[in-house]
Amino acid sequence: MRIVVDGFGKFLGLKGNLLVIKSREGNKSVEVDSFPLSKIEQVIVTGKGSISLDLLKKMGEMGTDLVILRGGKVVCKLSSREIGTVKTRKEQYYAHLDERSGHLAKAFVYSKIRNQYSLLGTIAKSRVDTNPEVSEEIQKKREEIKGVLDEVSTIEDKRIDEIRSDLMKLEARGAKEYWESISLIIPEEIGFSGRRGIGDSPRYAKDGFNASLNLGYSLLEGVVWRAVQISGLDPYGGFLHVDRPGRASMVLDVMEEFRQQLVDRVIIPVFTKREITEEDFSYEGKVCMLGEKARRLVISRVLGKIENGTVYYRNSRIKWDDLILKKCREIVKYLRREIGEYRPFYLRW
């Protein structure tokens, strides 16, 4: 279970084995909720408040993560002591010197583009009767993405430094067609024209749709981060994403397999059905900020799917949360040469 603490002035404390949330009402501190720590995997803080040291110590003992979000990104991640074997970390680092690094990076790119291709197929199909012109345009762009997938498949497994540039160019081509397609169905008044923000970085969103995606991706990042650590991988030792100080590149690599199915697929209908409108966000300078209603809706939908949704994978139903951990453990097996290839996750339609 994941607990999200939103709003202003909340206090997180400990009472026995319970996580207690308090809020200020006038001059008094009032308990508004409590949860047994034994059932909590992660506490996600999106608002402003404080937390007791006793609670942090207890969370560390019980393996409960703390994730703090600001402006649509993870700014703090606290967890208990690292687990996993030294061999896994060593093989993760050694892999940068051989074809395993390129094999994994190629798998991550293929998975992302294949999921974009699949989601556009669903969107186009659902609009054949109601909006045939848009459906046809999306199908055309989908075929362009199919061509990009074919090119990804032809890249040989080599050391990542030899093929990263080619992979990133293909990923960018696929993303261009994908987001241009999505812009055709987002209400015009939202102002979405692609994954661009202030200074061409999506981090500082210029519109409510991008701001919602940023929040959704940050929630996914916290979930993936936990799975990466549990599986014994170094969160900072990725392959596709270049190493930078403080950048959890392995977490970002694994996220590529799940962005479309766990965030995009959830956020898009919220806007096409106008559950969130331009009235639900405001601006600080040029940066778009989600209001309380929009923020809570995005959080509940994305985490609801991750924790409670299921997907058919290799002849059985599995929770999305469990699938993310399963894929991380498959990456470990590949790095340790216990399996001959890593097969990325994607939906065929």
The total strand number stands at 12
CATH topology of the largest domain: Four Helix Bundle (Hemerythrin (Met), subunit A)
What is the CATH first-level class name of the largest domain? Answer: Mainly Alpha
Main beta sheet: 4 strands, mixed
Could you say what the CATH architecture of the largest domain is? Up-down Bundle
> What gross morphology would you assign?
globular
The proportion of residues forming helix, as a percent range, comes to: 40-55%
Number of contiguous helices: 10
Order of helices and strands: EEEEEEHEEHHHHHHHEEHEEH
Q: Strands across the major sheet, in which order?
A: 1-5-7-8
Mean pLDDT reading: 92
Low-confidence stretches: none
Annotated CATH homologous superfamily of the largest domain: CRISPR-associated endonuclease Cas1, C-terminal domain
Cα separation of the termini: 29 Å
Quaternary class: single chain
Relative strand content: 15-25%
How many domains is the backbone divided into?
Answer: 2
Describe the structure.
The protein is of the alpha/beta class and 349 residues long. It folds into two domains: 2-78, CRISPR-associated endonuclease Cas1, N-terminal domain (Ribosomal Protein L15, Chain: K, domain 2); 86-335, CRISPR-associated endonuclease Cas1, C-terminal domain (Four Helix Bundle (Hemerythrin (Met), subunit A)). Helices cover 49% and strands 19% of the residues. The protein contains ten helices and twelve strands. The protein has helices spanning 53-62, 86-94, 99-126, 132-154, 160-183, 208-230, 249-255, 259-272, 292-308, 320-335, and strands at residues 2-5, 8-15, 18-25, 28-36, 42-45, 48-51, 65-70, 73-78, 281-284, 287-290, 310-313, 316-319. Strand 11 (310-313) and strand 12 (316-319) form a beta hairpin. Helix 3 (99-126) packs parallel to helix 5. It is globular. The model has no long low-confidence stretch (mean pLDDT 92).
